[in-house]
């Protein structure tokens, strides 16, 4: 893209002044509409070192109320950040509905740089491009406005700017070693940036190359692009988003009704013996995982009172608390609801070598959110694919993913509800909501079946835990966890 | 404490078994009461390397629902963490009301270790002890139950445990270089730990030394201490907390009524000229701050419509967006309200070299929370002192603190409210709440006067911005910011 790009004519001084003042006024007014229509906006500034990313951001934000935006500066990932999937530190920063996040460099810089430095080969580069495409599409599909600017300056211009900054000790820190390397290898870098932009130039999140040789002119281009895109976004809010074809490799999985719950029982003696042995085995595996820095994600979904809690406990009892965290997922809090629905899961991922156990998960999107109308039909239909992408991302990062559906029948649930109700110490475990959900059992069953069919991917299959006898389900879960982890250590 | 401690007699096997099972059952029941009474509990495990901190935690948490606790493992601070006050990473992890946080080592380890390694001298050590005392007291005063365990093992025992772990490649990572050093310098370390415990053995957050030579016995001691302390905490909830004497060095400051708002005006020409010069100057200082890694905290409080937003904007226009963040403070969200009221400010501190501008602040505790009854009288009365301590902590960390009160008179506010109401583009800026607050002007004035008198410390004094003419206030603010920063760079 960059290599065959032609800059537009820079307007005369008077025209520039007039247009700038118009754009500023418009942006000032539009920020209120953004707020009102609850549109989250991500503005990504990429480009050459010293091309004026920071200074352009600082001019743009003058027109926006400080309560409505955040500027995030991305430098090289820290050691801590390197222990997460590479998109983690970007996903973390996505704005709430009605607010802006301005990023001073982002995934273009990281991907191109690490590729230029030889840290990623062609295959890894291609996989990252795929991740970025999915990431940006997931954002725009879920109502985010994603604006991507590339600040373009010529080699000579960059050289001069760098030299000027290097001369003064208070500005020297602004020129990194990579900025200097970039200038020395300008042509090679340009080619890499250009390819990256072509690779990620989606219609829903296109690139805008900004002629950044003149600062005022650069500001004007950015401002006008921002303003016109916000206007479009405001008009497009009711725009429907296509449901992508589910192209992930799916495995067959039985319907809930076909799951045999009979005779899946264990007596106390067998249970105790197996439990002890399996927990010792898992404890040992946990040490290995830690040493080899493999992340593990275990997810639990299932009927109310199916025995998720007790099942999770039998897993965690075997683990060192320094290396795992249980993530109980309740209904989202306001700051979570205001963001992409996967945000609260991205931000709860384990770091490499750790185990995260999710007590309920992102599958809430296609169950409770679907049935209670917390999201639109379009939203939950799109979610199967989004979730498959999300789990693929985790898999490619190197995570072990183990997904459990804890299954009981309707009578068993009733018996357990009644027992909880009648036992003062367990009453806290049962709420009116549980009874209301129970009334919707049949609707849930339809949703669960669809979910299982559509997300039972080869790389992250579901495991059914028959839990009419909780002991049986616990032992089965432990065996599966051990088996899956063993494949990796 | 440690040097003159005598272990209790370890009970016989049968007795141990019985007592353990009782304690486990009690903890299981008590967790529900903790939840119900909304008590936040911090359980700190400190002690020798290989003394079994992690494994004891893992036994204790078996009795608690995973939704109600979090285990946090603290290792050496990262480079990122070192750019914040040393308590930052601990304050971040305090639990919500009704939940537990278990810490696998914490501030004892960090302080003693850095002192043993010669990273802190006696003076710095003393200042940290003071910080810890205030930190723990602030937590307990605000309803936190803080339990501190020290897991004690003898030199010989530690040596054997370390050797055993080092022999196996899957467990080798559990023994750090420091653990080994600790064993080699056991006596010296013991003295240091002992002194630290005496120094921080407050009645509201006392130390419990656990004889950790035998694992079951260690578990029993921890469990019984936990259970008995939770019972006490449940009985003590209505306990009143003494208001400490305000011993901070205070400067005199006029009452709001005595602030002369007349003739504090600037004409357009003077304003524009000064603004430009001052912003250029501030921009240069910002570079120096960044290079010297000095953190700056600028806070704004003032009447509604006093002109805080516009004032902040004139500051930020001069700054590089990579080095500052505006923190707009609205009413707390649920996850914030569930924690110590300073938590949401601790977690928003700038890192060294950065500027944080707070648009409203922790002073909400002694203004809106006081007047609207969002906290008890005891709570807000205690807050003056807590806030002085908090700001002292920031000052000692090396921060520049600049506190503004933006002052207007009642008539000016009315005029501005009316203008907002009549201007369609500004209507969003005015709400019913603003009108309600206006009715309480006199009560607020009393609260503000008390606040100014009680928190106008030498190290973090208030600055009054007379803002009937907003231009005047903006220029004055810029001058003060420049003056204060100049003292540091």
From TrEMBL, chains A, B:
Example of a GO biological process term: polyphosphate metabolic process
UniProt keyword annotation of Coiled coil present: yes
Domain of life: Bacteria
Keyword Cytoplasm annotated: no
Domain (Polyphosphate kinase-2-related) ranges: 12-235, 266-486
Gene3D superfamilies on file: P-loop containing nucleotide triphosphate hydrolases
Coiled-coil boundaries: 261-288
One Pfam assignment: PPK2
Keywords: Coiled coil, Transferase
Molecular function per GO: polyphosphate:AMP phosphotransferase activity
PANTHER family from the UniProt entry: POLYPHOSPHATE:AMP PHOSPHOTRANSFERASE (PTHR34383:SF3), POLYPHOSPHATE:AMP PHOSPHOTRANSFERASE-RELATED (PTHR34383)
Protein name: Polyphosphate:AMP phosphotransferase
């Amino acid at each position: 893209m960059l290599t065959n790009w032609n800059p537009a004519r820079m307007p005369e001084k008077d025209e520039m002044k007039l247009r700038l003042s118009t754009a500023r006024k418009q942006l000032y007014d539009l920020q209120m509409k953004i707020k009102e229509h609850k549109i989250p906006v991500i503005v990504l500034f990429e480009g050459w070192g010293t091309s004026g990313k920071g200074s352009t951001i600082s001019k743009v934000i003058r027109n926006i109320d400080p309560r409505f935006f955040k500027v995030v500066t991305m430098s090289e990932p820290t050691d801590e950040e390197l222990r997460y999937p590479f998109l983690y530190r970007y996903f973390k920063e996505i704005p709430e509905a009605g607010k802006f996040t301005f990023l001073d460099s982002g995934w273009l810089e990281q991907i191109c740089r690490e590729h230029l430095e030889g840290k990623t080969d062609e295959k890894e580069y291609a996989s990252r491009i795929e991740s970025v495409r999915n990431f940006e599409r997931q954002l725009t599909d879920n109502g985010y406005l994603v604006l991507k600017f590339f600040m373009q300056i010529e080699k000579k211009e960059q050289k001069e700017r760098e030299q000027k900054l290097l001369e003064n000790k208070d500005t020297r820190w602004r020129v990194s070693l990579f900025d200097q390397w970039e200038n020395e290898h300008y042509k090679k870098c340009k080619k890499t940036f250009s390819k990256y932009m072509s690779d990620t130039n989606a219609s829903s999140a296109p690139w805008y190359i900004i002629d950044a040789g003149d600062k005022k002119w650069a500001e004007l281009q950015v401002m006008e692009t921002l303003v016109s895109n916000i206007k479009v976004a405001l008009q497009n809010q009711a725009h429907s988003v296509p449901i992508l074809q589910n192209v992930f490799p799916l495995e067959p999985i039985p319907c809930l009704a076909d799951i045999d719950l009979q005779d899946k029982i264990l007596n106390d003696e067998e249970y105790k013996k197996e439990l002890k042995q399996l927990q010792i085995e898992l404890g040992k595996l946990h040490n290995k995982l830690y040493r080899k820095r493999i992340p593990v994600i275990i997810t639990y979904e299932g009927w109310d009172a199916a025995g998720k809690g007790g099942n999770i406990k039998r897993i965690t009892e075997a683990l060192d608390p320094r290396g795992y965290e249980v993530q109980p997922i309740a209904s989202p809090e306001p700051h979570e609801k205001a963001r992409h629905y996967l945000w609260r899961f991205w931000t709860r991922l384990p770091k490499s070598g750790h185990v995260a156990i999710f007590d309920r998960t992102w599958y809430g999107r296609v169950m409770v959110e679907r049935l209670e109308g917390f999201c639109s039909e379009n939203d939950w239909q799109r979610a199967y694919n989004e979730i498959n992408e999300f789990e693929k991302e985790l898999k490619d990062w190197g995570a072990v993913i183990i997904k459990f559906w804890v299954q009981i029948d309707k009578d068993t649930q009733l018996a357990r509800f009644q027992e909880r109700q009648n036992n003062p110490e367990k009453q806290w475990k049962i709420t009116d909501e549980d009874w209301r959900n129970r009334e919707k059992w049949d609707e849930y069953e339809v949703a669960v079946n669809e979910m299982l069919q559509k997300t039972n991917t080869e790389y992250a299959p579901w495991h059914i835990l028959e839990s009419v006898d909780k002991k049986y389900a616990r032992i089965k879960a432990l065996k599966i966890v051990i088996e899956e982890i063993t494949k990796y250590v």
